[in-house]
Amino acid sequence: MKTLLFSFFLFAVTNSLFSQVKFLEEGKKPGTGSLEDLGWLVGYWTGTGLSGTCDETWMPAADGHMIGTFRFWNKGKLVFSEFMNMVQEGDTFYLKLKHFNPDLSGWEEKEEWTIFRLVETGENTIWFHGFTMKRVGDEMQLWLELEENGEKTTMEFSYTKQKQLGY
């Protein structure tokens, strides 16, 4: 009996760790959701991720768009930034972003974006394909799956909401 309970506990813990990042199966329709329900994301967030300091800011949704910025610092130096746009498209939305070096030269080509399709939404949580954002109180956790040389790693970001911008 103890072995059965331990196996169940191990499965539950392992399953909860792997459910932090979800994926949209090939050919499957994206999840449904509305940018108007994402007021919980608006504001200025600071914290850690990628072994450095991160800042992220989100503005309220307007005209089917929710605009955000991200910057990553390491040892007092700006490493890169992002311009983010969540776009409403019918009954779903997606996140598209571009990365920039400190001199504002882009990582992606002029007409290319990094795009995250919506898997599903929950209470104060958004699951995009390979990327999750979850708010609890004035704290927010983000999980991003990265693949390099065929090896997948889930990166975690931890933010606290700041009051400086009045949100």
UniProtKB/TrEMBL annotation:
Keywords: Signal. Residues 1-19 form the signal peptide. The keyword Signal applies. It comes from the Bacteria. Residues 40-145 form the DUF6265 domain. InterPro entries: DUF6265. This is DUF6265 domain-containing protein.
